[in-house]
Amino acid sequence: SKSTVKAGLLQDLHQLLPHSSSPSLPGPPGFYLIGNMMELTHDHLPIHLNHLAQRYGNIYRLKCGNTTMVVLNSSEVIREALVKKWSDFAGRPVSYTGDIVSGGGHTISLGDYNEEWRAHRRLVHSALQRCCQQSLHSVIERQALHLRKVLMDYQGNAVDLSEDFTVAASNVITTLAFGKEYEKSSSELQQLHSCLNEIVALWGSSWISALDSFPLLRKLPNPVFSRLLKEVAKRDEIIKKHLNNYKSQDNRNEDAITGSLLQGLDKQHNTAHGVLLTDIHVHMATVDLLIGGTETTAAWLNWTVAFLLHKPEVQTKVYKEMCTVLEGRYPKYSDRHRLPILSALINEVLRLRPVAPLAVPHRAIRDSSIAGYFIPKNTVIIPNLFGAHHDPAVWSDPYNFKPERFLAGGGGSTRALIPFGGGARLCLGESVAKMELFLFTAYLLRDFHFIPPESEASLPDLRGVASVVLKVKPYTVVACLRPEYNP
Ligand code: HEM
């Protein structure tokens, strides 16, 4: 009968699919109870995970307490999980400390995959898109010109530009979010950043992650955890003040994302699936944009200048290309296809130093498979983007800075480049980030020539410090104004 044939086919199909009896995942041996926890405490975790990939392959498992983690180290396996099988791996691990940092799982970045999260992400995505179409270009241009002034005021002195890059990136986000920008010296800005940075740093510390794996530790006094709670409360107070300020303004900036989000809350579509989005979702979306959009972009700019100090000839080539194509004017984002050398530089820095090197951990929301291995529900998936960008099977001379690999005939494949992740959890700010990287770099390299300070015996250390964001170690640089543009 028809139903017996159907049952038979299903059984055959089941046997073809990987399941619990498929080959077990390779991985380093672990110690009882703590498993492979020590593997996760390395200084530069992405590089360490890459070394393990050389021994165990592009997909392997680590055990931590009773959690199994699967580390993916090539763009092929990462794409299989995040893009092709996105609906199996769109979850986030739910954790005790993650819940505290995300206001009970209400951020987009840490919220688990469900109807409420989908409605939240959709709401923020469309508000962001609307705002980007209307004002993003001019918001970035304004910050790039402001950065130009700040650099000119240094008058050729050797300085560390990391804070100026943070202020520029942060002002893009705060202007988008509530139509407000700050001076570097503003105490409000400093308070906000020190608080967000503290939260990210504390949350990444092993004092805190131990609380997730070993619940008994929650009963003991933990000063690091108390500090985390204090910073989260401070963060919420600052954001609340901004949102209330925005709401109370008579002539509020209607282009701002906050406005779109508040309007969106009232619309019917949010309740279509029985989901009710509220002020807390607007609040936590602001946290997402500020955390996601500030240190990442700033770290990337810092890396770009550091690499250019090592290879000054790349700086000259980008400058010459801009002179020829733009004939003296400032670039628009629409010029990017006519500036292949600049685009190649941007891609090569994204490849070598993906600033979110391990993305954000995913969680299997049902039994599935990757590369033929059975992956049970609730497995934590770590996409090692840094590893994928250094895969010798895809990139020739993977550890060397060679922007020319992305020029025609250079062999570099933008398809294998995945600095923003992919699928349902693709970086929400990808289009904001891409426009920022392009315009900030183009404005900086059109007007300035970056050189190492004479007093400095060595160039910036390019190994980096990896936590949630991969940053370059502090260094100083001299920004010389190009004489052609000296007003
Ligand atoms: C998530 C990269 C800039 C907002 C992510 C993820 C990566 C990433 C790898 C995790 C994807 C995953 O879980 O698989 C980057 C890079 C940036 C950048 C390389 C700049 C160079 C930004 C900006 C914003 C932003 C400017 C905000 C305007 C977010 C948010 C998420 C996210 C909200 C969470 C998405 C979700 O869980 O659904 N980003 N990002 N990012 N990013 Fe970005």
Brief overview, please?
The chain has 487 residues and is α+β, with helices and mostly antiparallel strands. Helix content is 51%, strand content 7%. The protein is built from 17 helices and 10 strands.
What do you see in this structure?
With 487 residues, this protein is of the alpha+beta class. Helices cover 51% and strands 7% of the residues. It is built from 17 helices and 10 strands. The strands form 4 sheets. Strands 1-2-6-3 form a 4-stranded mixed β-sheet. A two-stranded antiparallel ribbon has the order 4-5. A hairpin with a 2-residue loop joins β4 (368-370) and β5. α13 (295-310) packs across α14 (312-326). The longest helix is centred in the first third of the chain and has 39 residues, at 115-153. The model has no long low-confidence stretch (mean pLDDT 89). Residues 82, 108-109, 121, 173, 288-289, 292-293, 296-297, 300, 354-356, 359-360, 383, 419-421, 425, 427-429, 432-433 line the site of protoporphyrin IX containing FE (HEM).
